[in-house]
Amino acid sequence: MSGFCPELSGDVREVREWVRTFARDVIRPAGAEWDEREETPWPVIQEAAKIGLYSLDFFATQWFEESGLALPVAFEEIFWGDAGIGLSIVGTGLAAAALASNGTPEQMGEWLPQMFGTENDVKLGAFCASEPDAGSDVGAIRTRAERDPSGDWILNGVKTWATNGGIANVHVVVASVDPALGTRGQASFVIPPGTPGLSMGQKFKKHGIRASHTAEVVLDQVRVPAACLLGGQEKLESRLARVRNGERSGEQAAMRTFETTRPSVAAMAVGIARAGYEYARDYATEREQFGRKIGENQAIAFLLADMATRVDMARLLTWRAAWMARKGRQFEQAEGSMSKLVAGETAVWVTEQAIQILGGAGYTRDHPVERFHRDAKIYTIFEGTSEIQRLIIGRAVTGLPVR
C-alpha cells in the first residue's frame, strides 16, 4: 500500500506506554474479579476517567491523530489488560462513532459530552442496531420511527446485543423510517437520558466479556424531538428522495458506523491474542518437565512461532486498515473486513493454543488463558460475523454479487 509505514510516531508510542501502564497496573489485576461478578466495573471506569483515558478528549484526540494508528494501538493495550473491562471502557466509542459519522456539528457538540460525563460523574453511551430477528442483516430492522404532526419522532421496537444498553445515559438507535426502501430507508436517532418509553429488557449472561454489560433495549412509544434525528430532517428527506428516484443514496447509517469502527474492533482482538501468546510464551520458558523447559521442545517452540507470527500479521492488517481509513482511502479490497476477520480468528486460535501449551492448568481459572479464550470468541461474531466478513471480501475481490 503506497505511503503506508507501520512506524509509530513519538506521540503514539508515548500514549501506548501510558495506556499499557494503566492496563498492567489497574485493568489486568481486576479482570478475574469482574469476570466472575458479571457486572459493569464502575470503579475501573472511574479510574480511567480520572487519568483522562475514559474521556471524550482522549477518544477525539486519538481518532484524529494523523497516522490513524493511535486508537488501534491504545485499544490493543486496553484489551491486552482485559477484554471485558476493556469493552466497558471503550463501548461508548461505538455510539460516539455513530454520532460522529451521521450527526451535525451541533448534535455532536450537545450529545458527545453527555455520553462520557465527567471524571466525577461517569456516563456511558450505547449504539443500538441489532434486533432479535435480524441477525447480521441490518436490512431486516423492524424498529420503526414515525413522525407525528407535531414534528416529533415516535420510535417503537426492540434492540438486542446492545453494549451498555439500558444503563447508558445516551442511546443512539437505528430505525426504519421507510420500510419499503430497506437499509436505504433507515436513520439514526439520539434518545436523550430519561426519555419515557425506553427501558432495558433482558440482560444477557455471556460466555465471555462478562464485565461488559450487554442487554436488550425496549422502545415503547419513545418520543424524541426532530433535533434528535442525526443529520437533520433536510438531509434525510433529500436522501430518501434520491432513493425513490433510483439514485444512489450513499451508505446507510448502521453500515457506516460498522465500517468506521472495524479496524478498532480488530485491534481489540489483537490485544487479546497478544495476551494469550505472551502468557503461553512466558509459561513455556519457565515450566520444566523431564529436566528441561517445555519451550525447548519443538512442538511448543513451533507453536509459539506460529502464534507470534499470526499476532503480528493481524496487527499489520489492522494498522493498514486504520491508516487507510484515516487517509480517506477506499477499502477497495475490503481491507477493513480483512482486518476484522483475521484479527478475530487469530484471537480465537492463539488463545486456544495458549490453553494447549499450559495443558490441564490452562483449562482452570488458576490461569487467565481460559478467560482470554472465552473473551476472544465474540470477535468472530459481533460487529459482523466471520462469515459476513468473508462475504464482503468475496464481493470486493470478485466484483460479483456473492450471496
TrEMBL record:
Superkingdom of origin: Bacteria
Signal peptide: none
Chain ranges of the Acyl-CoA oxidase/dehydrogenase middle domain: 126-222
PROSITE patterns reported in the protein's UniProt record: ACYL_COA_DH_2
GO function terms (MF aspect): acyl-CoA dehydrogenase activity; flavin adenine dinucleotide binding
Annotated Acyl-CoA dehydrogenase/oxidase C-terminal domain residues: 250-397
Cofactor: FAD
Name of the protein described by the UniProt record: Acyl-CoA dehydrogenase
Species annotation: Nonomuraea endophytica
